[in-house]
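User: Sequence in, structure out. Go.
Assistant: Echoing your sequence, followed by the structure tokens.
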Amino acid sequence: MKLAARVSQVTPSITLAIAAKAKAMKAEGIDVCSFSAGEPDFDTPAHIKAAAAKALDEGKTKYGPAAGEPKLREAIARKLQKDNHLDYKSDNVIVTNGGKHSLYNLMVALIDPGDEVIIPSPYWLSYPEMVTLVGGKSVIVPTDASTGYKITPEQLRKAITPKTKLFILNSPSNPTGMVYTPEEIKALAQVIVDADIYVVSDEIYEKILYDGAQHISIGSLGKEIFDRTLISNGFAKAYSMTGWRLGYLAGPVDIIKAASSIQGHSTSNVCTFAQYGAIAALEESQDCVEEMRQAFAKRRQVMLDRLNAIPGLSTAKPDGAFYLFPDISKTGLKSLEFCDALIEEHKVAVIPGIAFGADKNIRLSYATDLATIEKGLDRLEKFVRSRI
């Protein structure tokens, strides 16, 4: 069978593959310490599950509007107004099958073959693959620890060409955990406005911040940048709802209408009763978010201290999300070689930086318990010392 050419241009998700391998090894009774998946280890908060169960009991099991339940779209718009100072109404919002789906809908709606999309590296691994699937061209702009793995206004300005359509901004970042300061966001916004391009701000980790770091939605900085901004977000990380597959895209009405038409012919509506759980997540107590954030903060410090005590590793301190992104270059190993040997020899699963466009790094998730962190880093230290 001859498959479509686009299939051969897309790389399978390394993060999902390694997470699946770790789970399979655990199922075989092997003691694996996994730092691979970007998935909180907490259960979904009880009040969110109760709201979905109530909706299920009430028979909310039928097809719904492709763009999402009206009550949820209204709740999301209120959240964006209150938390992010973005003047959106429900018509500016589409509910999607996870945050990833919101970005894919956007790519299909906005990017024509040959259009360029600027992506700072390290990047979340699915960004360039989505661009490829719709026939666009990813323009990768490398960053490093000297700028906190953040693109500068000068780099962005230099990367823009007449074919540039979209810039992808991710703060807090996956895989680095770095957060752009308000001043940095303002400077990038000015470049975007001057060039008259769109920006999609992936804000899935916005509530997971440390040490006084502040999240700023770029579209809140004025009408000119607001008109060029799209917001991608979801419920997976802040509310530990990864399996619920609930995300959203917010932006100009014409783009949201286009995304809704695309969704109507692909997935149709998101699971109806699950959307009522999302309403509860937004409108009821946020104490659960803070409890999880505090746990992540403690784990972050433990993992950071341990990593920086290992000779040969260098790890920048992240301001958000739940990842660390150490530099492994002193080991002499490329990231995939490092990760393959680590899981085979010491049963520790981490993600190679090559998946994020940074082959001299690895990504560790601390969305797991402290006992696993301590045991896994004991093994990691033993491995690295054997290679130095």
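User: And one key feature?
Assistant: The chain has 14 helices and twelve strands.
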